[in-house]
């Protein structure tokens, strides 16, 4: 699981795709925000088939996603589904944007995100973020200690 995009990317190949390809393992892109894209080339389509501009996408997702597990398919300009806006918890207002990275289907990616979400950010990403922030704090503290001037004995003249 990658904190970023897979196929739901302006070029169709986000960091989840690259990481999965390089490691040759399944990856899922889960983003908290939809990337700003050229709205002439990248559209969201509702089930009615109306193309939506980027400005209307956030409003459309809030209106159409009300229950945990609700999905709104996001299509590219060719009509290919490249990801979904997914409401992944009962108390979420804003969706996460899920897309396959490498060696995984969109449906399986959504199932995994739903099963690993206690909060808006899925647990693997949330825990990795907490651990990395804790390590950064430790490294910062060590760096500050190493730069401190040690106590010097007073010179006797």
UniProtKB/TrEMBL annotation:
The keyword Hydrolase applies. Keywords: Cytoplasm, Endonuclease, Hydrolase, Nuclease. The keyword Transmembrane does not apply. InterPro entries: Endonuclease-V. GO terms for biological process: DNA repair. Its main location: cytoplasm. It is found in: Cytoplasm. One of its GO terms (cellular component) is cytoplasm. Gene3D superfamilies: archaeoglobus fulgidus dsm 4304 superfamily (3.30.2170.10). GO terms for molecular function: RNA endonuclease activity producing 5'-phosphomonoesters, hydrolytic mechanism; single-stranded RNA binding. Transmembrane segments: none annotated. This is Endonuclease V. It comes from Fasciola gigantica (Giant liver fluke).
């Amino acid at each position: 699981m990658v904190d970023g995009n897979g196929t739901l990317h302006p070029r169709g190949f986000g960091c989840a795709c690259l990481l999965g390809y390089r490691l040759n393992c399944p990856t899922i892109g889960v983003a908290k925000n939809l990337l700003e894209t050229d709205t002439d080339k990248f559209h969201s389509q509702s089930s009615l088939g109306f193309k939506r501009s980027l400005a209307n996408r956030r409003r459309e997702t809030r209106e159409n996603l009300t229950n945990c597990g609700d999905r709104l398919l996001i299509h590219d300009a060719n009509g290919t589904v490249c990801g979904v806006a997914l409401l992944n918890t009962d108390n979420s207002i804003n969706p996460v944007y899920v897309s396959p990275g490498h060696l995984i289907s969109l449906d399986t990616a959504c199932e995994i995100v739903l099963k690993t979400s206690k909060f808006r950010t899925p647990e693997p990403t949330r825990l990795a973020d907490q651990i990395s922030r804790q390590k950064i704090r430790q490294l910062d503290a060590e760096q500050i200690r190493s730069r401190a001037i040690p106590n010097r004995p007073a010179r006797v003249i």
